């Protein structure tokens, strides 16, 4: 297709490098053929775990990019070498924005990451409520267009309730379509010059949380969510049958109710999306709602997640409204330089809030937002400092036990082999990690 090399390799890649990896483009486009399913023996779905050698071991990345702005080679290399996993994909909102389907775009960036680090777990971002990518820029868009009215959520009068469309999972044909579209991309295998196994290790499904569906009754919402739950379980079963240990990871598990719902789908992982922000804050002062935050800490550590792997989304400070809005008493950052400075200043205190609850199945995803460049230093729109975060190299060591809350206070502590964690829910910036023998000043 025209301009395929620009999408494949990013603006900074030289011509000879584009020629070298054109095989990736041909392979991705052919293996994403509609309905291409791979048969395989069923295998247990493993949960990704980490070691405790350094802080870098616990850090993952969730970064998408926009049409025409595929990350350059340096950004791909940094991501592949500095994060324990990468969730990625290309967003699209209008037909014709992409040179390829959004599945092929995601496959191409995944292949570039795995050429740098073949063992890196990589997942594709997708949605389960408004299915904008499937509706306008997917390999499955033609099938969707033929059935869009029948498969969209409609109110009692028969009117479609949302644009972009919400998929009506209570329609069995629509649910089966959604499962097939997402299972399809998991069957694409790595080319032999990279390694063996699938390109994608997991599918990250956004918008999986519970909540009222605008324009329809509570009973209809409940029926759609029940059917969605079954569809997600069917997707996990289908990709388990691929025989490669691939996973489904859901967003979100911020409440006990959502976590129970998530676990019933038999998926292997979930994201705690709003960790320490939004509903856990007083929106006027930015202070923690201590009881709510204490409940969140308990939920992550008391077995509510069972065997789920959990991605805990960390944020630079008291965000009371997305995107990047601080409470009225503080100045919200607006420029990349301001965000870089704040993310550097806040890294240690936000890390403390994660390490307080972390176990080997928990990973920390620290960023301002969800763009690829929010995780990569040295770019014009980077929101991390040019030197990245020095603490990532600090020895951590395994935890010596669970956290301890000081009686009658909002102070929590936890000890690691090479670090001490202190969290004060009365003073966010007083929280800290003190490393032994690692000067990060």
Description of the structure:
With 441 residues, the chain is α/β, with parallel strands linked by helices. 32% of the residues lie in helices and 12% in strands. The protein has 12 helices and 12 strands. Strand 5, helix 10 and strand 6 form a beta-alpha-beta unit.
* Uncertain residue segments: 1-20, 25-44
Strand order of the largest sheet: 1-2-3-4-5-6-7-8
E-strand count: 12
Q: Helix count? A: 12
* Main sheet characteristics: 8 strands, parallel
Order of helices and strands: HHHEHEHEHHHEHEHEHEHEEEEE
General shape: globular
What's the N-to-C terminus distance? Answer: 50 Å
Give a brief rundown of this model:
This protein has 441 residues and is an alpha/beta fold. It contains 12 helices and 12 strands.
Q: Helices, strands, pairings?
A:
Layout: H1 4-9, H2 15-20, H3 22-31, E1 61-62, H4 73-82, E2 86-88, H5 102-116, E3 122-127, H6 132-137, H7 141-151, H8 172-186, E4 202-206, H9 218-240, E5 247-251, H10 256-263, E6 269-272, H11 290-301, E7 309-314, H12 336-355, E8 362-366, E9 404-405, E10 411-415, E11 419-424, E12 432-435
Parallel strand pairs: 1-2, 2-3, 3-4, 4-5, 5-6, 6-7, 7-8
Antiparallel strand pairs: 9-10, 10-11, 11-12
Give the key terms.
eight-stranded parallel beta sheet; four-stranded antiparallel beta sheet; alpha/beta; disordered N terminus; 441 residues; 12 strands; globular; single chain; 12 helices
